[in-house]
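User: We ran a pulldown and think these components assemble together. Before we commit to crystallization trials, I'd like a predicted model of the whole complex to look at. Sequences follow.
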Amino acid sequence: MTSQRALRILAPLLIGAVFLGVWEAIVRVKGIPPYILPAPSAVARSLWVDGPSLLGSLLVTLRITLAALAAAALIGGAIALLFSRSRLLELSLFPYAVILQVTPIVAIAPLIIIWVRQPFLALLVCAWIVAFFPIVSNTTVGLNSADRNLLALFRLYGASPGQILLYLRLPTALPYFLAGLRISGGLALIGAVVAEFVAGTGGAETGLAFRILEAGYRLAIPRLFAALFLLSLTGIVIYLLLDWLSRRVLRHWHESVRATEEE
Amino acid sequence: MPATDPHPAATGVAATLSRSAGEGLDTEPIVALSGVGKRFASGLEALDGIDLSVARGEFLSLLGPSGCGKSTLLRIVAGLSEPTRGSCRVSLGQPGKAIPSGRIGFVFQDPTLMPWSTVAANVELPFRIAGRVGAEQRDRAAAALRAVGLAGFERAYPRQLSGGMRMRVSIARALVTDPELLLLDEPFAALDEITRFALNDDLLRLWQTRRPTVLFVTHSVFESVYLSSRIAVMSARPGRIVADLPVGLPQPREGARTTPAYAAMCETVSRALGTAMANTPA
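Assistant: Here's a predicted model for the assembly, 545 residues in total across the polymer chains.
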């Protein structure tokens, strides 16, 4: 259905254009000063002028985000694997994973920054703490969701625990893991930004969060909006990439992919 | 299991699950159950005093109402569950050794396929677990798929197939190792009647050409009479065998569904099942 697909792209774009138009009109008609609310055109101009330096800062933030996401996927996956191997381990450690998850990162970021001297590593740890839980929780459920009859069949054919893990439990857990990864992608970005807000500059290079703070102090509100815009754009791109990855990996067999592609 | 076993005295030598082979005589039954009982940890008495022996090459149906423990019985024969009383002897492979993998084939009520694997990879699973998937194994998988009428579907994924075709894949997987004992747990219960009749005929043909011993669990009188050489009728709570009926209908049976002899046999079996149901607390 090509018209469906066109609608899916055009409808949000149209809403965005109308929103920006109304915003621009209100700012112009009411004469609102840019340090209260800059018009979209002013934000676009700032994006053009400050773009190159903002992009440099974006790269710093992005590096922390991606490293945190990779660490969340690796360590989160490993923890889930450990949980699925030992019920005792899961029972005794899972509550602490929850505690780590519900503790506001803003509250513990200063401590982490004191404990971990290396700034990049400190920011990474903060972003990781925010990002790892959905992967642990989802993958643990997935690893324990293997079909009972398939398990019986594997036993009937004399499969080793390693074979059951490799051929049955891991493939079963894959969609769960990927769903967790999609949530963690956005959380890793939020974690990186929040940590940077608390930590200030991450060494010689400054990330996007620091630029937002700085623009706020200097009342350079159009630049603040430009940085925010870049941040949202990054979040969207990360989500779309992970969504694409998930579809790509699951396209042949998982119901979640069929639901949208065979309408 | 022992911690909750209400019959500690029976778990000793008498209940030792002997899954090794006997003397290898042709007259020796391939499956011999004596006094088999199964009580679950919940206290539910699933089976009680099951004596059953299955000769090589037989097609035996276990017929009974739901909850009569026929699936449990099948799992005990497969070695997936241990009886709490009595003994279960399955004579396959070398005497005194564990049953080699692939000598027993199992088909569940659901196709139980791996959705992430192609049809070919699903059928090759027993070989993959045994650690050898070469050209010969791939040929055997292709042959098993041909035997169930699915040649050309090797690269398809399970979700692209109909329910009947998925069940055929499941049967191909059970057949691929050329098992001597084929266990089927209500494999066609979820299918429509047309597909079910077609698969009944396919199963009969496969049985006649390969001659495995078949244990077939069903709750359909008509299906059991059409397929079996012998029917064991079971009653529920606890599961017991209440009638053991040989089916004398000639082979091949294509078209036998309309003969008077078939109708008469169905009536006999129905009456036995009716008696079994009457003795079952509702």
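Chain A has a mean pLDDT of 89. That may be worth checking against your pulldown data before setting up trials.

User: Thanks, that helps.
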